[in-house]
Design a protein that fits this description.
Blueprint: E1 18-27, E2 30-40, E3 45-49, H1 56-64, E4 71-76, E5 79-80, E6 90-93, H2 105-115, H3 120-133, H4 149-161, E7 167-171, H5 179-194, E8 198-202, H6 206-209, E9 214-219, E10 222-227, H7 229-235, H8 241-248
Parallel strand pairs: 3-8, 3-9, 6-7, 7-8
Antiparallel strand pairs: 1-2, 1-4, 4-5, 9-10
Helix pairs in contact: 3-4
């Protein structure tokens, strides 16, 4: 298998939206990310693929400013992360739902929208819009503790979208969501991208990876390949993204 010589393959002629520069991350004596280098242009969807424990969530947390590198730097919109002023410019949906169970969905959304300083009229408008998107309008007044797991995931996505951020980071956003709604969510992600939003998605759903503009493949904390789905399949003589991942990861064909 040929070595990946340069993982800065998404660099454009202008400053990238997100730059990850020689990032390592260790927890105690355990290193989980190794020398990650990646430039992500504006208005693209980057899919991050890797098995559980490969470092995907650690990486996106550093981009969101929730975690910090042990070595190296992360820049978002030309600002070194973490930076408090960037909170308004990043939408982050974690794997674990950060919701207030005793509040209704509307109260959860109102709380998060108020953190971004939305005036009341716009707040109501955005709540209506995002709840329609995730197909939860009829459950707006229901306490979140009475939501199913899939409904909580959908509400978490609505919260990440409510302030229309220029950077959107979604960690396994469609887990537990039915195929019809997944299709509608991806249509919205493509609309957001076309309107200038830069989006990072981690997912294990192979057909979703085909919907991304570019992919970053991570194995054992190392970025092993970067490129469009078509290029990665062509470079590995593979018919599927899964086969391409196995190729770049050094698995026996």
């Amino acid at each position: 298998m040929p070595a990946i010589k340069d993982t800065h393959t998404l660099t454009s002629t202008t400053s990238p939206c997100i730059r990850i520069d020689h990032v390592d991350r260790s927890f105690g004596k355990k290193q989980v990310l190794f020398d990650i280098c990646l430039d992500i242009p504006y208005s693209q969807i980057l899919g991050i693929l890797g098995p559980s424990g490969s470092g995907k969530t650690t990486l996106v947390k550093m981009i969101a400013g929730i975690d910090v590198p042990t070595n190296g730097d992360v820049f978002v919109l030309d600002k070194k992360m973490p930076k408090l002023e960037m909170m308004n410019k990043i939408g982050y949906m974690a794997q674990a739902d950060a919701l207030y169970g005793d509040l209704t969905a509307e109260e959860n959304l109102t709380f998060f929208a108020s953190m971004y300083g939305f005036p009341k009229a716009k707040r109501k408008q955005r709540i209506t819009k995002v709840m329609e998107l995730v197909n939860l309008t009829e459950f707006l007044k229901r306490q979140v503790k009475n939501y199913s797991g899939g409904m909580k995931r959908r509400l978490s996505l609505a919260i990440a979208l409510i302030h229309e951020p220029p950077v959107l980071i979604l960690d396994e956003p469609t887990v537990g969501i039915d195929p019809i709604l997944r299709k509608s969510i991806w249509a919205e992600l493509h609309r957001l991208r076309d309107n200038g939003t830069t989006i990072i998605v981690t997912t294990h759903v192979m057909d979703e990876l085909e919907k991304c503009d570019n992919l970053g493949m991570i194995r054992e904390g190392k970025l092993i390949a970067v490129g469009s789905p078509a290029k990665l399949k062509a470079d590995s003589s593979s018919d599927t993204i899964e086969e391409a991942f196995l190729y770049f990861g050094g698995a026996t064909q």
